[in-house]
Design goal:
The chain is α+β, with helices and mostly antiparallel strands. It contains 15 helices and 23 strands.
Length: 630
């Protein structure tokens, strides 16, 4: 019976609404319940042998557990041990009490807890929040939406009180012990050749709700006694100074910015933090410390924005337009997205001779459930009390206005893909550092991208294609060495070899694209999207546009079929608009055919109408190849 409202006599519709407010939601996503006795362990996996032309390895470098304060408060009870068990293919318990398991094991992973107050909430005897008194599973199975709304409000309203940790006795020691646990657990799960772990953490700078977060990843277990945190400084340049100091003591690491999309223009700003102009020293320090950016994860994508790329028909993909502050203010797109930053970088290269934004890209999850929730069909959210069930995600189990249900606008997650010679810390880290990486929105789409001046179309049919591609050019993340006029086998314009294969267990491919950015004589950057390979016998229109591939999604059934699209696409492409005097960058993008979004799968489970968009086109995005004008 509902204990929060007494309803006066009402028409039938109002009475039914009252009953719904007082009754728990029947939610199939809460099953099967987790049972430790029957939980499947990680499956055996063969070792990967050394291969000079690189293996494609899949990973997640952005995972949180209950040692992150926000995760614990919102219902997570899993540990770093659980995170690595999940990444290796084992079954673990979700914060809502059901069993979760990844569809295919990952090759590498890093637990990256928030460094601020690491582990403190887990041992806080004064913490008094709803999910400590009764588990989230109990509440979801037994409580009404109104009761869950009250619990949510009580939890969120209490979070500010956790600032007391800044001055609480013993918090430093708790953090030191938690950090050592991160190191020890990563080391315990490292199996060279089979599964690679990295020691890492998240530097959680968020001035005025503007996201400047970075994940710091170490090459090995030679790490500081405790991480440099945003409590030490919220200034990224101070973080880089700290990492440079550690580097001077023999440590090797890199920092990976994420969620530029909600930084309000600060992540890839055109000035230093104090407002002064960029310098060559700033550019060198930034690129020394941040060779990558994470552009796909649960809190949306950071490739580009429709306001920045109005002619890119695929720019409007999992866009988060509000900051993370309580106000949810609009996040300024300029300075918040990777393509815009790459364009700014070549403008600086043209005008100043240095480039502060020559970075590669990866995806990851940012899951706080000790998991990588990348499957649209098996999505289990980021933070249990916010989005740990289909009912919570779609607003059926909780009464919150749309502005407060940010999780409804979140994506499923992303993955990091690297081309590495072997599955070891050294090889994967080196691939990250040289930017031979790409990002996906979750599917395991394979993507290769090479650039040079000596490629020919027939090379795509060669059995030694990979060796030739490496010998005569550079892979994603590389830099083209300009050929002298008339010396290149293909002429003066660069040529590119690219190919992509669908996720073996996923959707077909719609098209393969090259995105180019360049700077004109006035120092102004431009961009162009080229369709270079596509499925289903379509033709380019007179203005160079390619029509849609079609859409097989059955929204009511949350299904699709592979009757359209292609399993593989490849292309030899030469820049038709090349000017050797212009700075430029190029990157590849593979687009899937339309498939159901996670919210469509949830709607089918609950028997409610699917929110829009009901279908999405998932993708893979490569790191760029740069052309520096002579």
């Amino acid at each position: 019976m509902c204990n929060y409202l007494k309803y006066p006599p009402a028409p039938v519709a109002l009475a039914l609404a009252a009953l719904a407010a007082c009754s728990p939601v029947d939610d199939p996503s809460l099953y099967p319940a987790y049972d430790a006795a029957s939980a499947a362990p990680p499956p055996a996996k063969p070792a990967v042998a050394y291969q000079e032309t690189r293996h494609l390895l899949w990973g997640d470098l952005h995972i949180h557990t209950s040692y992150s304060t926000d995760a614990y408060v919102l219902g997570v009870r899993t540990t770093p041990e659980d995170a690595y068990v999940f990444a290796r293919g084992g079954t673990i318990e979700h914060g809502a009490g059901y069993a979760i398991r990844i569809d295919r094991p990952l090759d590498f992973a890093a637990v990256t807890e928030h460094a601020e107050y690491m582990g403190a909430a887990r041992v806080d005897e004064e913490l008094d929040m709803p999910l400590q008194r009764r588990s989230l599973r109990q509440r979801l199975l037994e409580d009404s939406p109104l009761s869950l709304t009250y619990a949510f409000g009580r939890t969120v309203g209490s979070v500010k009180g956790l600032e007391r940790y800044a001055h609480a006795a013993g918090v430093r020691e708790i953090g030191l012990n938690a950090w050592q646990l991160m190191v020890d657990t990563a080391e315990a799960h490292y199996q060279p050749g089979v599964f690679t772990t990295f020691v890492g953490y998240e530097w959680t700078s968020m001035p005025d709700g503007q996201n400047l977060h970075r994940n710091v990843i170490y090459r090995d277990t030679h790490v500081p006694e405790y991480p440099f945190t945003s409590l030490d400084s919220e200034n990224p340049e101070d973080l880089w100074d700290a990492l440079d100091e550690q580097r001077g003591r023999g440590m090797t690491m890199l920092a990976i910015p994420h969620n530029g999309n909600v930084s309000n223009g600060l992540m890839y700003d055109r000035v230093m933090t104090d407002g002064s102009p960029f310098t060559a020293a700033y550019a060198r320090q930034r690129m020394r410390n941040e060779p990558l950016s994470e552009i796909m994860q649960i809190k949306g994508t950071s490739e580009t924005h429709p306001l920045l790329s109005p002619r890119d028909e695929f720019a409007d993909f999992e866009i988060m337009s509000s900051q993370l502050s309580a106000s949810g203010a609009f996040s300024e797109p300029r300075g918040s997205y990777a393509r815009d930053a790459l364009r700014a970088g070549i403008e600086y290269a043209h005008a100043e001779g240095f480039n502060p934004y020559r970075f590669g890209v990866i995806g990851s999850s940012d899951s706080h459930n000790a998991s990588s929730s990348v499957q649209e069909s098996n999505h289990h959210g980021k933070l249990p009390l916010m989005d740990g069930s289909a009912g919570l995600r779609l607003g059926e189990s909780i009464f919150l206005p749309g502005s407060m249900r940010r999780s409804a606008r979140w994506g499923s997650a992303g993955l990091a893909a690297v081309w590495a010679q072997e599955n070891t810390r050294e090889s994967i880290y080196d691939a990250l550092a040289r930017k031979e990486t790409f990002a996906t929105s979750g599917p395991r789409i394979s993507l290769r991208f090479f650039g040079g001046f000596d490629y020919q179309p027939q090379m795509l049919q060669r059995t030694d294609l990979l060796q030739v591609a490496y010998d005569l050019g550079v892979p994603m993340g590389g830099e083209l060495a300009p050929a002298a006029p008339g010396e290149g086998e293909s002429g003066d314009a660069p040529t590119f070899l690219l190919w992509s294969a669908k996720d073996p267990e996923g959707a077909n491919l719609d098209r393969l694209q090259v995105i180019k950015g360049w700077v004109d004589a006035r120092g102004q950057s431009h961009e162009q999207v080229y369709d270079v390979a596509w499925s289903d016998g379509r033709s380019l229109s007179a203005d160079g546009r390619l029509g849609p591939v079609g859409n097989t999604v059955n929204v009511a059934a949350a299904s699709y079929d592979n009757s359209i699209g292609a399993g593989q696409l490849s292309a030899y492409w030469q820049d038709p608009d090349f000017d050797p005097g212009q700075e430029a960058f190029y990157y590849a993008r593979a687009i899937e055919i339309p498939t159901p979004r996670w919210s469509t799968y949830d709607a089918a489970r609950l028997g409610v109408e699917a929110p829009q968009p009901a279908s999405i086109q998932e993708r893979a995005i490569s790191s760029a190849i740069w052309y520096p004008a002579p």
